[in-house]
Amino acid sequence: MIIPGNSRVPLVSFVPQSVHEIIFGRFTVEEILYYAFRFKNLYENRHKAKAHIESTVEELMLDPKILRTPFVQCSGGQQRRVAIAQELMAYESKPPFLFVDEPTTGLDSEAALIVMECLRKLADHNPITIIVSIHAPSSEILSLFDNLYILAKGGVCIFSGPPDDMSFRLECVQQHQIANDRSPIEEYLRIANN
What we know:
5 strands; alpha/beta; two-stranded antiparallel ribbon; Rossmann fold; 2 domains; 194 residues; three-stranded parallel β-sheet
């Protein structure tokens, strides 16, 4: 879907869980982002590619040296951020909606937090709505979200709202006591899976 008019900026961009399905692993990060830039922009903007790629890499907290690295040699967290960068290569503006499917799956806690901090930073500094699907997020990652939608089996929403409201909703609204050894998100996930 493209925004009407002369713009080539997609209305919605999507980063799948398996980034290897959308990226040629033998290409360097610079080649991947350059080709994405070429596909997402008008020919007359081609001279802006290098600067746009460099600023996007910086925005996603990646070392500029990564540009010369083949994608397959990047860490899992770096690969996720490169896949996100690929979707941000439109020069005129970022897509208004970015869907990111399970960006933390398979990452250690530090790499997962960095990926999510990058998404938070993108949302804070750009007119972009980012929707993320995520399983079993840490409390630190949860604090980065504006709103959560916790879905139970069958797609039933059992919580909708800011992360800070989770304890209140469980205890006061649903009159459900949180076990001492569980965080609110763990309790909601237990409810969702029963």
